[in-house]
Structures are given as structure tokens and as C-alpha cells.
Fold these 2 entries.
Entry 1:
Amino acid sequence: MGVHRCTGVVLTILHLLFLVNGILLHPQRFPLSSTKNNLRSRQHIKRILKYDEAAPPLHVGIVDALSSIYEEKIEPLEDSFHYDDLDDGNDMSVQEIQAGPMVLLLGPWSSGKTTLINYLLDTSLLRVGAEPTTSEFTVISYGNKLKKTDGRVLVADRSKEYAPLQKFGKNFLERLTNVEIPHPLLKKITIIDTPGVVENRKQLERGYPYNKVMKWFIERAELILMVFDPNKLDIGREFETLFKQLRGKESQIRLLLNKADNVDSRDLMKVYGTLYWSLGPLLNVTEPPRIYMGSYWSYEYKPSPNTSMFKNEENCLLKDFKNLIDNDVENRIAAVRQHAIKVRIHANLVNEYLNQFYTEWSLFTSEYVAAANVIAFPEKFDIFRNVYRRLNINPRDLSGREVYKQFFAVHELSSMTSLAQQCTFFYGCPIAKLNDAIKEALPALLTTLLNLKSRHEEL
């Protein structure tokens, strides 16, 4: 079987046709049941990921500086304008900045998500099975010893970044768990295992706001693995909703066609084509999706002419993990800056609502009526147009009118404080500090990090 490279090459159906050329003349179907005789070597995982290597000490100082910029220049405006309560907003915290990158696993039930995690971590601690076994969101993180914590305890631990999950309610917390495992890879990443997408169930049967919970994790994930079983390729309503939430994260998505050694070469081409054409329209990208084919579990590959390709695919996926680890701090700086930009947009929008409200409120218009008019008809007052022109941003970067209707239903417009009113003689203006973080402090911190890394590599 031919081997293709990792560098941006997408395996299309045409490529696959060439790969299986000659094999289709002598098809051989292999048994679907595994003999499970031999365990697969994991030396390549350790070699590629280098998870035993300590992170350079310079990273610690940069992350501490990043946390300080957030606390001093971003968080004050975030709090005063209640950004966390915006439906489109994603809360941030120092704990999140200090935490390592998050890898999120999504996909249908029993597609092999949990088995893949067991394989990576050389463990069998996480329960797997042919029927749906993962009905919980499981946070898999590092610990000095094996430990399992339920969701209520996890969100109460202020040293971790999961406190905001409290807002999703008691039913969700009963389906949230944290498993700590003493594996060195977990010092560098945190893995989130999720309930499988089950298309024949209604979302309401889950008993908690599944889509909102999923959105919370998607927004924070640096790498998103979507795992598919060749026998479960149906894309239904819940999956379509999931893909809508993934918009803007396309570069971080990896599609995995798991259990590929259970399929002979002739059928593998058909399965690949089905998945390729099913997912293509759902991903907002101009290039075809990259699909990794393989068998991601602890046992040896079943006899197949495609084995060398499967091994190469796995190595490519592991290199994506390594890139994630190597670029962790740069990604944190970029994430904080992007968050700061969103906070600035929100603050300017609320400020514009306030300006128009004060203009509308007069002797002839009551406070209540003025606020109601501005909130209900922002287009009449050019609120969104004024903001995107002032900030020179794409109008699509602004949340919609309905989002702000919901926001002002929680926070009365007349109770908000304008940007100018928040300025003081001794402490200056919070908006000026936020602008400084976006334009000066964060870019300078990134430059410092890249220079330090360059010197470190030269040594």
C-alpha cells in the first residue's frame, strides 16, 4: 500500500482509488471480530509526542505575564459590562489561561472515542463497550495517583477552570466527571471525552442543555477529534447542530475514520467516499476535509494491505498532537487577544446602546419607553453600524439584535455604566487599558516568546 505524507495532503477518493489499485482485482474480506492476541507497541507515541520532556522554563514566566495582562487590562471591562452573561460570550479566567491545551473528542456512540484515549494513555481505566457507555462528559487530566471526582466537586475547585459549568445545572453536573491519571502526556494536555451523538433521541431526553454544554467545550478546545465508525455514518439533526457550533474552528478539527482495518479495500473506498461527501457541506471550508483512516486502539492491526497507510495516518495525527503541545503558549496568547477583541466589541455595543438611550430619553419619552425602543429597534438608531465602523471590523463579528435583547432582559440598560463614566483620575480608563492589551501588550508578549524560543532552539 502506498504511503502519503502529512504535510497538507488530503486523501481524496481519487487518491484512494490509486492506493487500492491492484487490490480490487483480488479482494479479500477480513473478519469483523478481533482476535485481540497481540498488543500494539506504543514506542512511536512516546517518540513522536516526547511527553517525558519538561516544558522550557520560559513558558512559565510568559504564562504568568499573560495572566497579569488579563487580570489588569481585560477582566475589569469584562466584569463591568457583564460579558459572561452574553449568550454569544465565552467566559475566561486565570485558571483557564494557566491550564494546558484541551483536546475534545466528538462523534457517534461506540465509534471508539474512549478506546482511542485508553490507547494514547496506555490504560484500560476508561470504560468501553459495543453499546453506548459514555453518557458523561469526562475530563481526563493529570494527577499523581488515579482519582475520580464528580462534577459538583470539579466545578467547586477554584484552582481549575471548570467553575463556569455550574450554570448548566444539577442534571448536567451529575453527568460530569473528572478522572485524574498519572500519565506524563496529561501534564501537557487535557482530554475531554463526550457522550456519543445518538440521532434517534431527542435532545430534551438528555435532561440538560446539551448544545450549550458542547458549545462551551468547543470554544475552549485547541484540537477537536471527530471519530467515526465505518458502520455509523448517518448525519442527523444533532450532528448538523454540532457542526454549526464548530464554525470558526475548522482548522482545529481532525476527522478520524476509525476501525478501518475491519473493512476490506473495496468497501473502504465506498465508506471513505460516503463520509467525505456527507461532511463536506457541513464544514465551512473551501478545501476538502482531511480524514485520517486507521484503527485507534491497543491491539494489532488486522491483516490488511492497508496497514502501512494506517500506521502513517496515525503518525500524522500524533504529529498534530505534538504541534499542539509545541505551540501551546502562542495559542494561549492568541486566544486571550481574541477574547479581548470580543470584550471590546461588546463594551462598545453596550456603550452605543447607552448613548442612543440617553439621546432618546427626554421630557416627552419616559426612561422605560426610551430603553424599550432602543433595545427593540437598534437598526433605527444605527447602533451596530456605528460600532463596526468605529472599530473597523466585519459586521459578521457582531452579535445579533436578539442576543442583546436577551442580555438587556437580564441587565437593565439604564443600570449600565458608559465607557466614559468608568474613567477615573487615578486609575485611568478601562477601555484604554483594553486597547493597550490588544494593540501593544499581547503582541509584545508574543514577540518576546518567539525570541526566547528561537534562542532556546539555538542552544
Note: Residues 8-36 have pLDDT under 50 and may be disordered.
Entry 2:
Amino acid sequence: MPGCIGLYCGRTEDQYGNYSECGACASGFRVDENSLCKKCDGAPLNYDWMYLCFMAIVSLVLNWFFIDFTNKRKSSQLLILHGSALLEALISGVCALLVVNPVGNLDITSCPVTQLSDWYTLVYNPTPDYVTVIHCTQEAVYPLYTLVFIYYAFSLASMVLLRPFLAAKFIPRRGTKSIYAALFFYPALICLHAVLAGLIYYSFPYILLTVSVITIAIHLSLFKEQSTLELLKAHVKDGRNIVILLCHWALHAFGIISLTQLEYPKFYLPLLCLIPLPALIYIFTVKFTDPSKLDSV
């Protein structure tokens, strides 16, 4: 039997042992080296799970940011909205895992990711005679691509069903703006994932490390008193600042683990000790970088 042209065109075997014409494999199947569609029954790699966690963390962090940003008057009541956002993320994650194969099981099967083109099979439909297109578009990375869409759909639904009632009951007129913000950034995340999923898959550890360093610098720069002692006091006395700092460190640790996979623990585990370094460098060198003191140099 001749092989199929194109990277992702394959033949499907029916119940009688007959093979179809070359075309797209069904969901949950992937073409092998013999141009046959084989069912994906392997488990996701640790890196795959970390990618899925990263996509979930992005929406969760954005929810927390807009809850805080849209409420200028900080109070302990905002913890209800933060808790609601976390609960929505957990519910959405569990529901998303339960609806993909095997349905009703938190353990999922996946197709292996071998190259960047696996995420963009749409642009690899062959045209043998430069006229007729053989449509072989499929999800070669099943379910890593669709699972994120499903997660965001559940996140939107759980937010609409849960958060407005909590906001109305505990924080009247103060929780609606964060909901409106989510109605804007969730579609933006969906579009971003649809177009850049493959690039994000290969670069998210670097994105996480870079963004966590930049945002901790922005957080520290927002304090009115830019001195080592005052910055230390602000983070010792204020629980909110401690939580923000710890969240940045957790994201930084996640980025290091995602990047290294801790393949060589004796070498990579000590790198986790560098997690507080960006914040400490800022705090202890702030007196040399304060723009208000440049005129006196």
C-alpha cells in the first residue's frame, strides 16, 4: 500500500480491515511512519502537564490582577473574590480533564509532540497538482490544543455562574469590574492560544521566567519609599505584599522546573535557591538606581 503525501495525511482502517483514502486522522489518532492513523494511547509528558498548568495559571493570575486592580480600596473582603477565582480554576480544570478521552477519568491520553508543525497542521495540507487540496488538518497534539479551549470555556461559565452572586452578597458594587475585565481577556486568551499555541508550548518557561522578573521589579517600584529598609518593612508588616512576593517566587520556581525538568537534580535543584535573587537585588541596590537621586550624582 503506497504511503500518503503530506506530513499529516493518513489512512484509516475500518472494522473489516479495509483502508480509506489518504486524509485527516480522527480525533485522538495520529499518522505514523507508514501513513496509517494510529490511536494515541500514551500519557502526557511532565512538560505537557506543565504547559497545561501554565495556560491555566495565566487566566488565574489575570483574574487575581484585575480583582486587585479594579478595586482601589483594598480590604479583606477581596479575598472572597480571589478565592472564587481559584475555585473557578479548580472546577474548570477538573471538568476539562473529565470530558476528554478517556471520558470521566482525570488521567488523559495524548499524542506526542515531535515538532512545531504539529500545532499547525492547517498549513500543511498537500496540493499534489497545485489545484486540488488534500485536507489533512487534524489535532496532531491531541488533546493539548483543544483542552485549553475547553478549560477557558468552563472558566467563563463557572465565573458567570459563581462570582456575580458572591460579589453581590459580600462586596456590593465592587466586584463587577473584574468580571467585565474577564469577559474581555478570556476571548483574548482564546485567540492568542488559537494562533500561537505551538510557539507558547516551546517558549512558556522562558516567558514565565522573564515576566516574573519584570513584574516583581514593577511591584517593588510602585512603593513610595524607595529605600532598602522601607521596602523590607513593607514586606514584613503587610501580608498582602508577602503574598504577592511569594506568588512571584512560586511562578519563578515553576519556570525553572519547566525549563530544566530537573533531569539532573544535583545540578538543577540548587538553581531553586536563586529564586529570591531578583527581588533581593532590587531591594539592596535600590539606593543606587533611584531616579530622584540621579541629579545629585
Note: The CA atoms of residues 256 and 271 lie 8 Å apart.
